[in-house]
């Protein structure tokens, strides 16, 4: 269990000192004002993509008794869940043990390095949870930790419990095809990927989760993709307009800009040796591109959902890509389609 809240300033942003010193987590922590605002916006946007829900509607979670939130950040998800399910016991763990204002009585928050095995009896209880929620941990989980992390969570779930994992990497693409390899967002991605691999992080972890799931006993993975537009361009031509997506897309412009800045600040300057001025110049170009609706920018989000089979000791999952496309077997999905946000919902039967 971690209780270390010592902070360090990096180019005007607030990081957790132990995370930087021990190479645990490389983004600002939620006590940083700008990061707190970004996390709140991110939570709002992804909840709206789920239809103003905290979990995918495919999870029939009628009466959850015990819930675990891994990597709670600013606490937006676990606080809202505890408020909506007042009879549940919710535990949130994060490398930076932030205490939130107006914390519900049924919510417990504690510090924990998720790169360690999830075996501390003061924090975790085996086969006890109806739902485990894990979101946006790619910058914090070491590349070689992911298989055992997924396995650890499986041992925490009750029979019939669920795991919802949300992972994405910000490979921004263009629906208009006008985004060149020289674009600022592409240059950011190439530098970020290089830096994170040096730091033993896998920014493409989403595409490997299916194999890891299978190795841990999950079966029959199916996938659907949903696009998160960046900007309101979906309604620009007045045809096939989606007012909900357009509204989300407009709000996503600032969130994505802040996301790229937060994720890249320390890796670029401390790990790759960029100057602050070089990074600021790149981010200025990125902001201009994100606001250019002629580029029709978006990222893909991968929803992986439940499967229910009446067989004893079968653990299975479905990966659902929700983009209005026809569901297909994830075994046939091109690799480029798997580099995006993954939301995994596993049911243990």
TrEMBL record:
Name of protein: S-adenosyl-L-methionine-dependent methyltransferase
Species in which this protein is naturally found: Leptosphaeria maculans (strain JN3 / isolate v23.1.3 / race Av1-4-5-6-7-8) (Blackleg fungus)
PANTHER family listed in its UniProt record: 2-METHOXY-6-POLYPRENYL-1,4-BENZOQUINOL METHYLASE, MITOCHONDRIAL (PTHR43591:SF24), METHYLTRANSFERASE (PTHR43591)
InterPro entries: SAM-dependent_MTases_sf
Pfam families membership: Methyltransf_23
Recorded superkingdom: Eukaryota
Upper classification of the organism: Eukaryota, Fungi, Dikarya, Ascomycota, Pezizomycotina
Gene Ontology terms for molecular function: methyltransferase activity
């Amino acid at each position: 269990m971690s209780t270390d809240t010592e902070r360090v300033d990096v180019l005007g942003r607030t990081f957790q000192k132990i995370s930087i010193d021990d190479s645990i987590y490389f983004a600002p922590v939620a006590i940083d004002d700008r990061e707190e605002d970004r996390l709140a916006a991110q939570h709002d946007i992804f909840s709206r993509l789920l239809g103003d829900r905290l979990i995918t509607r495919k999870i029939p979670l009628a009466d959850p008794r015990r819930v675990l939130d891994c990597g709670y950040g600013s606490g937006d998800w676990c606080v809202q869940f505890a408020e909506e399910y007042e009879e549940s016991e919710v535990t949130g763990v994060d490398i930076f043990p932030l205490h939130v204002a107006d914390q519900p009585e049924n919510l417990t928050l504690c510090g924990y390095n998720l790169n360690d095995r999830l075996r501390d009896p003061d924090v975790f209880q085996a086969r006890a949870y109806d739902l485990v929620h894990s979101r946006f941990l790619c910058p914090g989980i070491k590349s070689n930790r992911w298989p055992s992390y997924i396995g650890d969570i499986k041992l925490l779930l009750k029979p019939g419990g669920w795991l919802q994992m949300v992972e994405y990497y910000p490979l921004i693409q263009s629906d208009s095809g006008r985004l060149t390899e020289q674009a600022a967002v592409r240059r950011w991605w190439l530098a970020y990927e290089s830096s994170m691999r040096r730091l033993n992080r896998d920014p493409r972890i989403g595409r490997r989760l299916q194999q890891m799931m299978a190795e841990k006993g999950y079966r029959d993975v199916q996938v659907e993709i949903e696009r998160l537009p960046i900007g309101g361009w979906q309604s620009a031509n007045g045809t096939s307009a989606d007012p909900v997506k357009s509204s989300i897309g407009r709000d996503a412009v600032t969130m994505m800009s802040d996301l790229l800045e937060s994720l890249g600040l320390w890796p670029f300057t401390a790990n790759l040796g960029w100057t602050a001025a070089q990074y600021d110049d790149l981010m200025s170009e990125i902001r201009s591109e994100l606001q250019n609706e002629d580029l029709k920018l978006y990222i893909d989000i991968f929803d992986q959902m439940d499967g229910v089979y009446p067989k004893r000791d079968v653990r299975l999952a479905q990966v659902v890509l929700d983009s209005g496309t026809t569901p297909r077997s994830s075994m046939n999905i091109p690799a480029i389609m798997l580099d995006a946000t993954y939301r995994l919902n596993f049911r243990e039967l």
